[in-house]
């Protein structure tokens, strides 16, 4: 890790050894992620997208949101090896990238994080709508697809504001306009508020409403249009997993915003610890790209049927598959 160069010249041998130990731990964890988690996440995200898109007729509202999160997970899968094989994460780095590549990776990472967090948030709110008003089309698959499109558009627009701060923080100060905006803490504050605080409040509000609905016994509780009961467990698990994996990363953004680390940390002894925790938190964030599809695969009871249907369709090829047609007709009715 490049931060160790500072300790090699200006601080004690104990601090330098501590930084070296942190670098070794981070290198090993990064390689384990690339060897185990990365291929699992890539395969299961592709599988989740292909299986659901090949069975569009049988897709439900939660399926659309999980497909959206899987696509964002694939973007994270593209970013992860580029970052984890750089000198920031491992001693045995394969390359060094310049500021332009850094900005591009940061944009893709921020967009993916926003899509994942807001897909989880809107899944919670739409689940409440489906529970409260099962006969309406407010949370229909058709509407959800359009909502997911707006999520991607909103994530790109939201990332643009923080992008200006990051770009100006990496170019020459000769440009007067950018010299006034060289404030990375402001960019982190924007991402912290929009990417974490707003979704957290919305999810908490949705769960309060869902718990209130579950406590009330109404004739609508027996409605056949309601979602499968297993969806509630999948929703609860997905929200918990996403916030557990993403909270450490956003907490490091909060530390950087409030304390101005590393620029305003007077005691250089805390620098290796800060950078180690920041990199480790980003590894946890990358882990959401394989944790979510694995959980969806295990907890969604209809996924296996959709996968078998896809395999039968591939087996049939151009031949007529009467069983497939009857299954689709049952889903439509």
TrEMBL record:
GO terms for molecular function: G protein-coupled receptor activity. Keywords: Cell membrane, G-protein coupled receptor, Membrane, Receptor, Transducer, Transmembrane, Transmembrane helix. The keyword Cell membrane applies. It comes from the Eukaryota. InterPro entries: GPCR_Rhodpsn (IPR000276), GPCR_Rhodpsn_7TM (IPR017452), GPER1-like (IPR047143), GPR146 (IPR037487). It is a multi-pass membrane protein. The chain crosses the membrane at residues 31-53, 65-82, 102-125, 146-167, 189-213, 234-255, 275-296. One of its GO terms (cellular component) is plasma membrane. Signal peptide: none annotated. It is found in: Cell membrane. Residues 44-296 form the G-protein coupled receptors family 1 profile domain. This is G-protein coupled receptors family 1 profile domain-containing protein. The gene is GPR146.
């Amino acid at each position: 890790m490049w931060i160790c160069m500072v300790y090699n010249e200006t601080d004690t041998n104990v601090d330098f050894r501590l930084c070296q130990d942190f670098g070794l731990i981070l290198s090993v964890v990064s390689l384990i992620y690339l060897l185990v988690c990365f291929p699992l996440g890539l395969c299961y995200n592709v599988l989740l997208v292909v299986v659901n898109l090949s069975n569009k007729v049988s897709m439900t509202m939660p399926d659309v949101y999980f497909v959206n999160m899987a696509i964002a997970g694939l973007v994270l899968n593209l970013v992860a090896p580029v970052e984890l094989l750089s000198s920031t994460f491992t001693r045995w780095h394969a390359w060094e990238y310049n500021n332009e590549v850094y900005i591009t990776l940061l944009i893709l990472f921020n967009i993916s994080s926003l899509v994942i967090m807001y897909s989880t948030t809107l899944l919670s709110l739409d689940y409440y709508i489906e529970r409260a008003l099962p006969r309406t089309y407010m949370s229909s698959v058709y509407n959800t697809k359009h909502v997911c499109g707006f999520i991607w558009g909103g994530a790109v627009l939201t990332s643009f504001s923080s992008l200006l701060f990051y770009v100006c923080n990496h170019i020459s100060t000769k440009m007067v306009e950018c010299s006034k905006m060289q404030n990375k803490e402001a960019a982190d504050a924007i991402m912290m508020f929009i990417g974490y605080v707003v979704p957290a409040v919305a999810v908490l509000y949705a769960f309060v409403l869902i718990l209130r609905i579950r406590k009330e016994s109404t004739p609508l509780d027996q409605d056949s249009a309601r979602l499968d009961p297993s969806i509630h467990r999948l929703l609860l698990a997905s929200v918990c997993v996403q916030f557990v994996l993403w909270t450490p990363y956003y907490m490091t953004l909060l530390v950087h915003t409030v304390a101005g680390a590393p620029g305003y940390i007077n005691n250089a002894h805390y620098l290796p610890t800060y950078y180690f925790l920041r990199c480790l938190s980003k590894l946890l964030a990358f882990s959401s790209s394989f944790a979510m599809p694995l959980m969806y695969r295990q907890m969604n009871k209809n996924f296996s049927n959709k996968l078998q249907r896809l395999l039968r369709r591939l087996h049939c090829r151009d031949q007529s598959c009467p069983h497939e047609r009857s299954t689709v007709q049952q889903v439509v009715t």
